[in-house]
Specification:
Number of strands: 0
Structural class: mainly alpha
Number of helices: 12
Oligomer: single chain
Helix content: 55-70%
Length: 308
């Protein structure tokens, strides 16, 4: 009898284990079905997501938004993201990043944002689009900066050239840090500590944006391109620059002049140690806060006229 009781108890224990395993399998099966549905959903919009990511990366944010932030619910109504109020607190800044992402995406893609697969695919597309545009700019750098094209070969020692040092505000000393406000942003490449003439040398910014949005031929005296794939401005329906686009162009120009051979995905240059992520955030905030001020409005008007 005692043996029978022990066997019965052992059978019950095995049955309990099997039931738990079945529950886990059932849960995982449901999760796999859900994950498969997510993958199918994202794959069905893959081409559109890549276009949106490239536009977002150039016009809104040079770096992908944090994956954890994408799981946050957007307040209803969504807060304004194009005024100085977005910088009031850390929380307001994060929500503004989320709000401008949803604003840029078509509504039928909104439900994808909190998904892990979306974050992965969107981030990869942003980085791929950025790399593509930087490669395009490198081939047109002589027209942007009016310097010999050989200076912009990937492995060229740019930090040894006096003209480039003047644009970036460096002397070539070992361990030297790069200024956040390089001389190339000021008229005559002369830094104005009061910042009253900041962005006065807007032409390189405009050339960079024109190359990215209208194509390299827009920098030459050739007539507008005929045939072929439409430029980004046409594909995206863009008719004016944004604070994010201007900040993107400034950072891109700094990178092209720097000794760095590759743009760092994490944001800090391997050779220069320039924190490109921080510089982008700095200029975007500065531009958003001053966007409606008369002097900056005049400069942006010049840039828009040049580009469009």
């Amino acid at each position: 009898v005692k043996n029978a009781q022990l066997e019965n108890q052992a059978l019950k224990e095995r049955l309990r284990i099997v039931e738990e395993q079945n529950k886990i399998l059932s849960t995982n099966k449901g999760r796999r079905k859900k994950d498969d549905a997510v993958v199918e959903d994202i794959l069905s919009f893959e081409a559109e997501l890549k276009v949106c990511a490239k536009r977002y990366g150039l016009m809104v944010n040079m770096f992908p938004p944090p994956a954890a932030l994408l799981k946050t619910s957007l307040p209803d109504p969504a807060p304004s993201f194009n005024t100085a109020a977005r910088y009031a607190t850390t929380g307001s800044q994060e929500i503004a990043v989320l709000a401008e992402l949803y604003d840029m995406l078509p509504k039928h893609l909104h439900h994808l944002v909190p998904m892990n697969r979306f974050s992965n695919e969107f981030s990869k597309a942003i980085c791929a689009g950025r790399a593509s545009e930087l490669n395009k700019l490198r081939s047109a750098a002589s027209q942007i900066f009016e310097l010999p094209q050989c200076y912009f070969a990937i492995s060229y020692a740019r930090d040894t050239e006096p003209e480039i040092r003047q644009l970036l505000g460096t002397t070539g000393k070992a361990g030297e840090s790069y200024p956040t406000l390089p001389p190339m942003l000021f008229p005559g490449n002369i830094v104005d500590r009061s910042r009253k003439t900041l962005f006065g040398n807007w032409q390189p910014i405009a050339k960079t944006l024109s190359c990215c949005l209208k194509g390299r031929t827009s920098l030459s005296n050739e007539s507008r391109r005929q045939g072929g794939a439409p430029p980004n401005a046409v594909k995206w329906g863009v008719t004016a620059v944004t604070p994010g686009a201007v900040a993107w162009a400034i950072v891109a120009n700094i990178f092209l002049l720097s000794p760095d051979q590759e743009f760092p995905q994490e944001g800090k240059g391997k050779t220069s140690r320039i924190n490109y992520r921080m510089i982008f955030a700095f200029f975007k905030e500065l531009l958003i806060c001053d966007w409606e001020k008369p002097r900056l409005k005049t400069i942006i008007k010049h840039i828009n006229t040049f580009v469009f």
